[in-house]
Amino acid sequence: MYGIINKSIEELVKENFGETKWDAIKKSSGVEIDFFISNEPYDDAITFKLAVAISSELNVPVSSVLEMFGEWWVLRTAKEKYGALLLAGGNDLKGFLLNLPVFHNRIMLMYPKLTPPEFKLDNINERSMDIQYFSEREGLQPFVKGLLIGLGKMFNTPVSIEISKSDQCDDHFDIFKISW
Ligand code: HEM
How distant, in Å, are the alpha carbons of 17, 28, 148 from that of 10? Predict the structure, then answer.
Protein backbone atom coordinates (compact mmCIF):
# COMPACT_ATOMS: atom_id res chain seq x y z
CA MET A 1 0.00 0.00 0.00
CA TYR A 2 1.10 3.53 -0.63
CA GLY A 3 3.15 5.17 2.12
CA ILE A 4 0.35 7.61 2.92
CA ILE A 5 -1.49 4.72 4.61
CA ASN A 6 1.45 3.83 6.88
CA LYS A 7 2.12 7.48 7.55
CA SER A 8 -1.47 8.01 8.61
CA ILE A 9 -1.24 5.01 10.98
CA GLU A 10 1.91 6.55 12.48
CA GLU A 11 0.12 9.88 12.99
CA LEU A 12 -2.88 8.18 14.58
CA VAL A 13 -0.66 6.44 17.13
CA LYS A 14 1.53 9.46 17.87
CA GLU A 15 -1.40 11.80 18.36
CA ASN A 16 -3.54 9.48 20.48
CA PHE A 17 -0.94 7.46 22.39
CA GLY A 18 2.31 9.45 22.19
CA GLU A 19 5.71 9.25 20.49
CA THR A 20 7.11 6.72 22.98
CA LYS A 21 4.29 4.30 22.25
CA TRP A 22 4.93 4.67 18.52
CA ASP A 23 8.62 3.91 19.03
CA ALA A 24 7.70 0.75 20.94
CA ILE A 25 5.19 -0.31 18.27
CA LYS A 26 7.64 0.32 15.46
CA LYS A 27 10.30 -1.72 17.26
CA SER A 28 8.05 -4.68 18.02
CA SER A 29 6.65 -4.69 14.46
CA GLY A 30 10.12 -5.32 13.04
CA VAL A 31 9.48 -2.69 10.35
CA GLU A 32 12.80 -1.01 9.66
CA ILE A 33 11.75 2.06 7.71
CA ASP A 34 12.47 5.43 9.27
CA PHE A 35 10.17 7.61 7.16
CA PHE A 36 7.22 6.59 5.02
CA ILE A 37 7.03 8.44 1.72
CA SER A 38 3.39 9.15 0.83
CA ASN A 39 3.55 8.49 -2.90
CA GLU A 40 5.78 5.43 -2.77
CA PRO A 41 4.21 1.95 -2.78
CA TYR A 42 5.23 -0.37 0.09
CA ASP A 43 4.62 -4.07 0.63
CA ASP A 44 1.18 -4.69 2.21
CA ALA A 45 2.93 -6.81 4.85
CA ILE A 46 4.32 -3.61 6.40
CA THR A 47 0.84 -2.21 7.04
CA PHE A 48 -0.35 -5.52 8.49
CA LYS A 49 2.76 -5.80 10.72
CA LEU A 50 2.07 -2.31 12.08
CA ALA A 51 -1.60 -3.18 12.77
CA VAL A 52 -0.63 -6.36 14.63
CA ALA A 53 2.04 -4.54 16.68
CA ILE A 54 -0.43 -1.79 17.63
CA SER A 55 -2.91 -4.46 18.67
CA SER A 56 -0.43 -6.15 21.02
CA GLU A 57 1.07 -2.93 22.40
CA LEU A 58 -2.38 -1.44 23.13
CA ASN A 59 -3.88 -4.76 24.11
CA VAL A 60 -6.88 -4.48 21.78
CA PRO A 61 -7.97 -6.81 18.96
CA VAL A 62 -6.57 -6.17 15.46
CA SER A 63 -10.16 -5.60 14.30
CA SER A 64 -10.48 -2.65 16.71
CA VAL A 65 -7.19 -1.22 15.42
CA LEU A 66 -8.43 -1.41 11.83
CA GLU A 67 -11.80 0.11 12.72
CA MET A 68 -10.13 2.96 14.62
CA PHE A 69 -7.84 3.52 11.63
CA GLY A 70 -10.83 3.66 9.24
CA GLU A 71 -12.41 6.50 11.24
CA TRP A 72 -9.08 8.29 11.55
CA TRP A 73 -8.46 7.97 7.80
CA VAL A 74 -11.70 9.73 6.91
CA LEU A 75 -11.93 12.27 9.70
CA ARG A 76 -8.28 13.29 9.83
CA THR A 77 -6.09 12.17 6.92
CA ALA A 78 -8.61 12.45 4.09
CA LYS A 79 -10.24 15.59 5.47
CA GLU A 80 -6.95 17.40 6.07
CA LYS A 81 -4.90 16.19 3.10
CA TYR A 82 -7.50 15.43 0.42
CA GLY A 83 -10.32 17.80 1.40
CA ALA A 84 -11.22 18.74 -2.17
CA LEU A 85 -11.44 15.09 -3.25
CA LEU A 86 -13.72 14.29 -0.32
CA LEU A 87 -15.95 17.28 -1.07
CA ALA A 88 -16.21 16.21 -4.70
CA GLY A 89 -17.42 12.80 -3.47
CA GLY A 90 -20.84 14.09 -2.41
CA ASN A 91 -22.80 16.66 -0.40
CA ASP A 92 -24.36 14.23 2.02
CA LEU A 93 -23.86 10.65 3.16
CA LYS A 94 -26.20 9.10 0.61
CA GLY A 95 -24.71 11.13 -2.24
CA PHE A 96 -21.19 10.12 -1.17
CA LEU A 97 -22.09 6.42 -0.93
CA LEU A 98 -23.74 6.48 -4.36
CA ASN A 99 -20.43 7.74 -5.67
CA LEU A 100 -18.30 5.22 -3.74
CA PRO A 101 -18.00 2.66 -6.58
CA VAL A 102 -16.09 5.20 -8.69
CA PHE A 103 -14.41 7.16 -5.87
CA HIS A 104 -10.97 5.55 -6.15
CA ASN A 105 -10.85 6.16 -9.93
CA ARG A 106 -9.76 9.72 -9.24
CA ILE A 107 -7.32 8.58 -6.60
CA MET A 108 -5.68 6.33 -9.19
CA LEU A 109 -4.76 9.45 -11.16
CA MET A 110 -2.69 10.52 -8.16
CA TYR A 111 -1.50 7.02 -7.17
CA PRO A 112 -1.24 5.00 -10.43
CA LYS A 113 0.01 1.82 -8.74
CA LEU A 114 -3.04 1.70 -6.46
CA THR A 115 -4.77 -1.63 -5.84
CA PRO A 116 -8.12 -0.13 -4.92
CA PRO A 117 -11.09 -1.75 -3.20
CA GLU A 118 -14.14 -2.42 -5.34
CA PHE A 119 -17.62 -1.42 -4.20
CA LYS A 120 -21.00 -2.22 -5.74
CA LEU A 121 -24.35 -1.03 -4.45
CA ASP A 122 -27.61 -2.91 -4.08
CA ASN A 123 -31.04 -2.41 -2.45
CA ILE A 124 -30.73 1.37 -2.46
CA ASN A 125 -33.42 3.05 -0.33
CA GLU A 126 -34.03 6.49 1.13
CA ARG A 127 -32.17 5.72 4.39
CA SER A 128 -30.29 2.49 3.74
CA MET A 129 -28.37 0.50 1.15
CA ASP A 130 -26.23 -2.61 0.78
CA ILE A 131 -22.58 -1.98 -0.05
CA GLN A 132 -20.79 -4.96 -1.56
CA TYR A 133 -17.07 -4.91 -0.83
CA PHE A 134 -14.54 -6.80 -2.98
CA SER A 135 -10.83 -6.78 -2.26
CA GLU A 136 -7.65 -8.54 -3.29
CA ARG A 137 -6.61 -8.28 0.36
CA GLU A 138 -7.78 -10.36 3.32
CA GLY A 139 -9.17 -9.14 6.60
CA LEU A 140 -9.88 -5.47 5.96
CA GLN A 141 -13.63 -5.62 6.77
CA PRO A 142 -13.20 -3.79 10.12
CA PHE A 143 -11.30 -1.05 8.26
CA VAL A 144 -14.29 -0.60 5.92
CA LYS A 145 -16.62 -0.49 8.93
CA GLY A 146 -14.53 2.29 10.49
CA LEU A 147 -14.45 4.19 7.18
CA LEU A 148 -18.25 4.08 6.95
CA ILE A 149 -18.66 5.19 10.58
CA GLY A 150 -16.20 8.03 9.84
CA LEU A 151 -18.21 9.09 6.77
CA GLY A 152 -21.37 9.12 8.91
CA LYS A 153 -19.64 11.39 11.42
CA MET A 154 -18.28 13.62 8.67
CA PHE A 155 -21.81 14.22 7.38
CA ASN A 156 -23.34 14.42 10.89
CA THR A 157 -25.40 11.38 10.00
CA PRO A 158 -24.90 8.54 12.52
CA VAL A 159 -24.97 5.12 10.85
CA SER A 160 -25.64 1.56 11.87
CA ILE A 161 -23.90 -1.24 10.01
CA GLU A 162 -24.52 -4.97 9.70
CA ILE A 163 -21.89 -7.08 7.97
CA SER A 164 -22.59 -10.37 6.22
CA LYS A 165 -20.92 -12.56 3.59
CA SER A 166 -22.34 -13.17 0.15
CA ASP A 167 -23.94 -16.59 -0.13
CA GLN A 168 -22.89 -17.08 -3.74
CA CYS A 169 -20.17 -19.68 -3.51
CA ASP A 170 -18.49 -18.68 -6.78
CA ASP A 171 -18.06 -15.03 -5.80
CA HIS A 172 -16.70 -14.01 -2.41
CA PHE A 173 -17.48 -10.60 -1.09
CA ASP A 174 -18.80 -8.91 2.04
CA ILE A 175 -22.05 -7.02 2.31
CA PHE A 176 -22.25 -3.92 4.50
CA LYS A 177 -25.90 -3.18 5.20
CA ILE A 178 -25.76 0.47 6.18
CA SER A 179 -28.69 2.54 7.48
CA TRP A 180 -28.89 6.09 8.78
C1 HEM B 1 -9.68 11.23 -0.28
C2 HEM B 1 -9.92 10.09 0.29
C3 HEM B 1 -9.22 8.79 0.00
C4 HEM B 1 -7.97 8.54 -0.48
C5 HEM B 1 -6.89 9.55 -0.88
C6 HEM B 1 -7.81 7.09 -0.54
C7 HEM B 1 -6.67 6.43 -0.93
C8 HEM B 1 -6.42 5.10 -0.73
C9 HEM B 1 -5.12 4.48 -0.82
C10 HEM B 1 -3.81 5.19 -1.18
C11 HEM B 1 -5.29 3.16 -0.53
C12 HEM B 1 -4.21 2.07 -0.47
C13 HEM B 1 -4.29 1.13 -1.63
C14 HEM B 1 -2.95 0.91 -2.31
O15 HEM B 1 -1.98 1.65 -2.05
O16 HEM B 1 -2.87 -0.03 -3.13
C17 HEM B 1 -6.70 2.96 -0.24
C18 HEM B 1 -7.24 1.76 0.11
C19 HEM B 1 -8.55 1.61 0.50
N20 HEM B 1 -9.54 2.55 0.49
FE21 HEM B 1 -9.33 4.50 0.02
N22 HEM B 1 -8.98 6.49 -0.11
C23 HEM B 1 -9.85 7.49 0.24
C24 HEM B 1 -11.13 7.33 0.73
C25 HEM B 1 -11.75 6.13 0.95
C26 HEM B 1 -13.11 6.00 1.41
C27 HEM B 1 -14.07 7.15 1.76
C28 HEM B 1 -13.37 4.68 1.50
C29 HEM B 1 -14.70 4.17 1.94
C30 HEM B 1 -15.13 3.03 2.15
C31 HEM B 1 -12.14 3.96 1.11
C32 HEM B 1 -11.93 2.60 1.10
C33 HEM B 1 -10.70 1.98 0.95
C34 HEM B 1 -10.45 0.57 1.26
C35 HEM B 1 -11.45 -0.44 1.80
C36 HEM B 1 -9.08 0.35 0.99
C37 HEM B 1 -8.29 -0.95 1.19
C38 HEM B 1 -7.99 -1.61 -0.10
C39 HEM B 1 -8.59 -2.99 -0.21
O40 HEM B 1 -9.70 -3.22 0.31
O41 HEM B 1 -7.96 -3.84 -0.87
N42 HEM B 1 -11.19 4.89 0.76
N43 HEM B 1 -7.36 4.15 -0.39
Answer: 10, 14, 21
